[in-house]
């Protein structure tokens, strides 16, 4: 290969014969070096872009991790608040259960119920086979489930108390309507039931009640709860009060100085219904007390000394 060099100043020329290695070096300088520089620049650019892409990817991952960490912390805080609320709720339920147990035992004693009929010191009797697996992992039970179970037991106790209250109320009603005792707080029997000598005629006559002598103006008391069916002045009886107690029982209180109730009034056992006096056929301050059962006069003394069934 010949290379001709031309001189611009003198207009002459010169030729140079190039060998194989000289041609290779010249080709590299003209073509290879620029291409190599282009390749190096391209690779450098690719490396810089990859580094920037990796950096952006790492930043995105880190941001996601930070967000997940913040969300996890928020969930932990919320769970802690719920746990505290459930713990407080459980403590309140336990306090209610303790009060209900104490009240239940007190009412059971007052009602004089049989042993074991209402035992508030023991857990309610329950049973039955397990559904499915026999091994239960109690460590996995949620506190909310425990609270629900406790509320169920609490409702059971409240139901028992409701039944006990109903029994107690019915027994109290029976006690109120149970004829017993005497119609005066202080006094003594001055005349009994049956045949006697009449204080005005001296003849033997039937006395259908019991006379309780007492201080004039003191209270006449209802011997049982009931409804006032009649008040007023009756021949021989003077001022009188009549009370119906149900089950066919009627009581009368006569010779009153003044009646304190009116027809239709509801009266309770031991409630004042009149004042002791001496109106009608009477020789002194006393209460004439009569008892009627299904319209027939009966001896009141059996009810004066009557005890609870």
Properties at a glance:
309 residues; alpha+beta; Glucose Permease (Domain IIA); two-stranded antiparallel ribbon; 3 helices; 14 strands; rod-shaped
Describe the model.
With 309 residues, this protein is α+β, with helices and mostly antiparallel strands. Among the domains are: 66 residues; 117 residues, Glucose Permease (Domain IIA) (Distorted Sandwich), CATH 2.70.70. The protein contains three helices and 14 strands. The strands form three sheets. Strands 3, 6, 7, 8, 9, 10, 11, 12, 13 and 14 form a ten-stranded antiparallel β-sheet that branches. A two-stranded antiparallel sheet has the order 1-2. A two-stranded antiparallel sheet has the order 4-5. Strand 9 and strand 10 form a beta hairpin. It is rod-shaped. The relative contact order is 0.08. About 4% of the residues have low confidence.
Describe the SSE topology.
Layout: E1 2-6, E2 13-17, H1 20-111, H2 143-177, E3 188-191, E4 194-197, E5 204-207, E6 210-213, E7 219-221, E8 226-234, E9 238-246, E10 249-259, E11 266-267, E12 272-276, E13 286-293, E14 296-298, H3 301-304
Antiparallel strand pairs: 1-2, 3-6, 4-5, 6-13, 7-12, 8-9, 8-11, 9-10, 10-12, 10-13, 13-14
Helix pairs in contact: 1-2
